[in-house]
Design a protein that fits this description.
homodimer; 206 residues; alpha/beta; 9-stranded mixed β-sheet
């Protein structure tokens, strides 16, 4: 069987995964949302921020999420924001398929990340990601609108949300515009840590 | 020390606690949101629906929430919807302070629930509820707008959310319009059950 299609995000308790504009990506609430990630050993290693870091369950979850991912799919807006922010050695180290309307040649980064630009729809991007992932899983990396499109089409098998104890009040909502009547969920795993609660759900269409 | 001020609600994974209109209160998603409550022994006893029912952690949580509550505060919209739906023996069995602009005499129901109508603000309603509650806690019963008002004013000490594996897509959001920058949260307890995840947070102003 082919790998699982999943997403994994950090969400505020009121449902946001990002501020309205990428300029606010260093704002206080965003930092609080991601606070469980920054001190982890795996995060620091992967972004070459230095040795050391925490090694508890939060770190394991980051590492497991990375290791299961054979390829990623992302929306154009996430790519545009990331293109300015990722280090030269982008943190994916696999193929990444960007859903876009623009034709563009693959963009190869040092460290194994290659961005492929797919202009014929989300199904095609997923097919190519599955093929690239082999036995590993495909991660729908984001952002919110892209995740909702895959959910609405029944193309997500499961997902994990790290709920942080922070309220945003405004920003980009994870489930904005989801076709709620079509998506059935099942709670499959709950892992609280000191900083957040990791919730995992199976998804299917109904 | 006086009792704790808390709220306790069921929330969809996308942040909703009720449908847009009370006519939809029997819709499929609403039923799924509350599905963890209906089979519980305490819920059935309290609403005189008959003997029997489940007795696990979900049931204990319902019972503990009821038993700690010495008085409740609710908004006018919640009262209006409930006035039509609660059985004659309303399920509170304590004093309930309704924040309203209307003057109205107390309304006493069989079984110990008395609704008091408070027309001079949320602080006054809370003061009266604290006095009525004695050593027990005060529950901000809802709805969303009333909960947010108390949160914004730093008047909520802690709260519990039962997150159900359901998406609403539309309806009344728990944290709609919250003054997010003023509310600091701390995750204090996580209890997953078969049906939902019970998250408890401490709140304070910052």
């Amino acid at each position: 069987m082919a790998g699982t299609v999943f997403f994994s995000v950090s969400m505020s308790l009121d449902g946001f995964i990002a501020p309205e504009s990428s300029e606010e990506l260093m704002g206080q609430q965003w930092m609080e949302l991601q606070q469980w990630v920054f001190p982890q050993r795996f995060f620091r290693e992967n972004l070459k921020l230095g040795k050391g870091g925490e090694e508890g369950r939060d770190n394991d979850i980051l590492r497991e999420t990375f290791e299961r991912t054979g390829a990623s799919v992302m929306g154009r807006r996430m790519f545009d924001a990331g293109e300015r922010m990722w280090p030269e050695e982008a943190p994916f180290h696999t193929s990444v398929f960007v859903v876009t309307h623009e034709r563009r040649d693959p963009w190869e980064r040092p460290g194994g990340t290659t961005f492929h630009f797919v202009d014929d729809g989300i199904g095609s991007a997923l097919d190519r990601a599955r093929e690239a992932a082999g036995d590993r899983d495909v991660r729908i990396a984001g952002g919110g609108a892209t995740i909702v499109e895959y959910l609405d089409h029944g193309l997500v098998d499961e997902f994990s949300i790290a709920i942080s104890p922070v309220l945003f009040g405004a920003g980009i909502r994870l489930f904005e515009g989801v076709d709620a009547g079509r998506v059935a969920l099942e709670q499959v795993r709950v892992e609280p840590t000191q900083r957040v609660t990791h919730l995992t759900y199976a998804a299917r269409n109904r």
